[in-house]
Amino acid sequence: MTSPLTLTHAQLADGTSVLTVVGEIDQSNADDLAAALDEAHAQVVVDLTGVGYLDSAGLNVLFARGTGLELIVPPLLSPVVTVSGLADLVPVRGPEGVAPDAPSG
């Protein structure tokens, strides 16, 4: 069973939208994510730190938005975002503000 998806929208002073996503993103709720992205401004940061699962339906929504998108991904989702090629299309950073595969130290 999919955990409930929570989508919280905020706007920064520079006009950038921030969409914070918590839960699991799959076929049952990918349309909700798409609708939230459609409501966002041209530039949107999607914070996926609270997401524990992202399937192909969710990836397709993010690919469809593409332009103007930036992702914050937790270590759990980093391989999915990288292998899918999404990290080649949009800027991706970890919760600490660095690329999730950047060397530490």
Automatic annotation (TrEMBL):
It comes from the Bacteria. CDD domains: STAS_anti-anti-sigma_factors. PROSITE patterns: STAS (PS50801). It holds the Pfam family STAS_2. SUPFAM superfamilies: SpoIIaa-like. Residues 6-62 form the STAS domain. It comes from Streptomyces sp. SID7499. This is STAS domain-containing protein.
